[in-house]
Amino acid sequence: MIKNAANARAFPRSDAKVIAAHQFNQKLRIANLNVGSMTGRSSELSEVLLRRRVNICCIQETRWKGSKSRDIGNGFKLLYNGSITNKNGGGIVIDQDLQERIVEVHRVSDRLMSIKFVLDNQPCMNVVSAYAPQTGCTTSEKEIFWNDLDDLMQSIPTTETKYILGDFNGHIGQTSPFNARVHGGYGYKWWTDDVKQKLEQKKTLFKSWQNSKEETDLEAYRTAKKVAKRAVAQAKVKSAEDFYAKLHNIKEDR
Length: 254
Prior knowledge:
Distance between the termini: 63 Å
Largest sheet: 5 strands, mixed
Strand order of the largest sheet: 1-2-5-4-3
CATH architecture of the largest domain: 4-Layer Sandwich
CATH superfamily of the largest domain: Endonuclease/exonuclease/phosphatase
CATH topology of the largest domain: Deoxyribonuclease I, Chain A
Radius of gyration: 23 Å
Helix content: 40-55%
Strand content: 15-25%
Number of domains: 2
Number of helices: 8
């Protein structure tokens, strides 16, 4: 009996060590990305977020149905909200450390959602992911979105911090020479010659289908539309990666 007592652990590790193990580094990296579609891109997205050391990432155009959460790899979890069709959809990707700090998830619509986090020794943090209606959507749909966003922001206590990220489908003019004066020249880096060419081809094929109403022209337009969307999504991802790489280099130079 004495021998067993001598070899046994007298007491569990101190509470201080347990608390220290779960304390969170207060420096956060929050990002936003229009993914175009999450189908087949979970692993790719998680690897980018891991490489960029992003803690929270709001994403738009997931094109997933339902309202669920899903592990996408590398310790990241995606909480998303979609419609009954494969259109729109948004979500928020959370790293492993922050997943245990979620206290509320508010899914307003397939274009708007928010997550509340509890942090150490500071007010709760609210992260809002928004995807504004684009050109072609009805006026009523646009009004509903902005009213929902206003109601959501009003529902968050003023004592809590708020971060709004999203794709607001904003456009600054129709030509690029004046854009640099407004946003520093970073916002249109994805507008490459390849993207322009594929979008122009899509528009041309759409007009051909409208004039002919032939099934072959419709299929050609649908194919060009998919190619153009893929080109835009890839160009935006590359533009974002180049931008963050530039910021990282500037930080290292300092």
